Amino acid sequence: MAVPNEKLLEMYRNVLTARRVGEKLYELFSSGKSGIPWLHRGIGEEAIPIAVLANLRKDDYVKLTFRMDYCLFAKGIEIRDCIASEAYKDSSQFGGPRSRFFWPEKGMLGHTGAGGEDPPIYLGAAVSIKYKKTDQVVVCVMGDGFGNRGPMHESMVMAASWKLPIVFMIHNNQYGMNISARRDGWMVNDLADRGKGYGLPGESVDGNDVIATYEVVKKYVDLARNGGGPSFIVGETYRLGGHTVGDTQPYRPKGEAEEWWKLDPLPRYQKTLMDMGILTKEMDDRFEAEIKAEVDKAGEDAIALPFASLENHLKTAIDVV
Ligand SMILES: Cc1ncc(C[n+]2csc(CCOP(=O)(O)OP(=O)(O)O)c2C)c(N)n1
Ligand SMILES: [Mg+2]
Predict the structure, then answer these.
(1) What distance in angstroms lies between residue 194's CA and the mean position of ligand 1's atoms?
(2) What are residue 24's phi and psi, to 5 degrees?
(3) Residue 40 and residue 52 in contact, taking contact as beta carbons nearer than 8 Å
(4) Which of 33, 53, 142, 149 is least enclosed by beta carbons within 10 angstroms?
């Protein structure tokens, strides 16, 4: 079934917003306004998180990769709070999420600093859904690095044997910290092959193609929602910059990033929608102006917030428990 025009435009606005938020984070970081001395940039990797979130209801659970968490504005977090969380500012006193995107009421159970420990947490959410007999789903997106760790394997085994409503997705940006995870970590060419060993259906998709990714995620979210159980899917994208800003990337083959810039999801999707007659130049200019104003204001508001403190984190964590 064709994706409705409204949905296509909603995703376009969100991909554009994600790009501008990513740029704002860099601006705040490089001008010394962020409270975190490093930045993991996600420019060019926005299609997967936005296509995932476009498939979810407010009451579904989701985890994105730590690099792309700022896209959670598309799950109902204010842009100010997305920026604040990435800049070590605390908006929890003002109605924002607690700590690193921990907001159970909105379906976000945060992510762990010891990377790769998250799948069992989200598996727990899937168990709760099965127990409560609701039609919610969980989408647990893992990087190609952290998705290769042990907790992911155990979670896939248990999800399969208990037929839980969870979609595991690998956001394959081709690199862990400084190795090619596909070449040096996974030892398979098509990462989706891994699901077969666990009895999980799934497939790989061009994760820089917004519509294709939306459709593949939809297929497996619908499966989970309709009682069909878990799956394992892979979005292929590319980390255009270093692991963090300042990484000189001696491990990256020359010319590789340049090739991937040609597949940048934003101009690609813009062209697709214009060719389809869904997006006009006038609409695009209007979106740009609206989003710029919104993101600039959100950036100012985020930076005016107090720095996060252990005391506040503990207090708000205890409030939840
Ligand atoms: C258990 C653990 N080992 C190592 C690290 C350091 N580390 C931070 S990010 C990262 C790479 C993760 O790669 P991937 O999951 O592909 O995410 P990406 O950086 O590509 O977004 C590593 C190794 C960590 N945080 N936790
Ligand atoms: Mg990676």
Answers:
(1) 20
(2) -65, -40
(3) no
(4) 33
- Say whether pTM exceeds 0.90: yes
Divide the 321 residues of the chain into consecutive groups of 10 and give the mean pLDDT of each group: 95 98 97 90 98 98 97 95 91 75 89 92 98 98 96 98 98 94 87 96 98 98 98 98 95 96 98 98 98 98 88 60 44
Distance 280 CA to ligand 1 centre (A): 40
Q: Report CA-CA distances (Å) from 186 to 176, 180, 251.
A: 11, 9, 17
CA 100/CA 79 separation, integer angstroms: 14
Rounded Cα distance between 249 and 253, Å, is 9
Alpha carbons 111 and 122: distance in angstroms, whole number: 10
Give the integer Cα–Cα distance in Å for 93 and 4.
Answer: 38
Of the listed ligands, the closest to the CA of 145 is: 1
Report whether residue 67 contacts ligand 1, using a CB cutoff of 6 Å: yes
Distance 120 CA to ligand 2 centre (A): 20
Q: How many CB atoms lie within 10 A of CB 243?
A: 18
> What's the confidence (pLDDT) of residue 319?
53
Residues 80, 299: Cα–Cα separation, whole Å: 6
Ligand 1 in reach of 65 Cβ (< 6 A): yes
Distance (Å, whole) CA 262 – CA 47: 15
Q: What is the pLDDT of residue 318?
A: 55
Which strands make up the sheet holding 138-143, listed edge to edge?
61-63, 138-143, 166-172, 231-236, 204-206
What tokens does 308 get?
Answer: 């996060």
Select 5-320's CATH number: 3.40.50.970, 2.170.150.70, 2.40.50.140, 1.20.120.530.
3.40.50.970
